[in-house]
Amino acid sequence: MILDAFNLQGKVAMVTGCNTGLGQSMALALAEAGCKVVGVNRSSPIETLEKMNAAEHDFLDLRADLVTQDDIPQLIEKTLAHFGQIDILINNAGIIRREDAVDFSEQDWDDVMNVNSKSLFFLSQVVAKQFIKQGKGGKIINIASMLSFQGGIRVPSYTASKSAVMGLTKAMANEWAKYNINVNAIAPGYMATNNTAALQADEARNASILERIPAERWGTPEDIAGPCVFLASEAANYINGYTLAVDGGWLAR
Ligand code: NAP
Question: Which architecture characterizes domain 2-193+221-246 according to CATH?
């Protein structure tokens, strides 16, 4: 039955930055599809914990600040100690800093590159090592952006970091496909979350963004839940190094 290929029963999925927004939606969707979920957050994911508990999903709540790579080794150690395996990694944690390029600070460059690209790579590295050890393959899904494809305005480190995400997705896929590890990315379009609160609140930017989206609406966190479950499932076994836009048609314009 084709729908069996989408079933994630018994899999263990780690999701970074799942206290809110897109990460929360993907964590809940993976749990609904059958996963035990490891949430990696820098503070307690209160709302996500409530939703996971209400639905009686298996959820391991881990703490890490991904602006450095210091916490990464203990994430995999604690996951294995609790669930004994890992099958899926969703690299979702991300930040954005807005400033004119001529005034952009080194701190805003380093912080964004660290969370969005460097930690994404080194967390993928430890998880891929474990996938190889387990010998059953695995799935890595990176959260990219429209700014993996475009330049953006006043967000140079975000554009650099998300362009790196798309490149790294291909680079990691090329080296790890032979181990049945699928590395792919989802590039969300303009989604209504904390990350885009400033844009939504700016009447002129909001109107110009909406004017360009063929679907004529902002995306919602639920819009990337299905694509995430699909890429995490056996139905995506022959998809490697691809960045899937979930953007209401933004890039098609
Ligand atoms: P969000 O609500 O701001 O969520 C970002 C998540 O990353 C939060 O859980 C946040 O935790 C976490 N995070 C940030 N810095 C961290 C750190 N140093 N260590 C650990 N976790 C950290 O925004 P979102 O829209 O859901 O964003 C999720 C991903 O989608 C990001 O990678 C973002 O770049 C990407 N994206 C979003 C859009 C959009 O339109 N919303 C479009 C394209 C791509 P805290 O709550 O503790 O800060």
Answer: 3-Layer(aba) Sandwich (3.40)
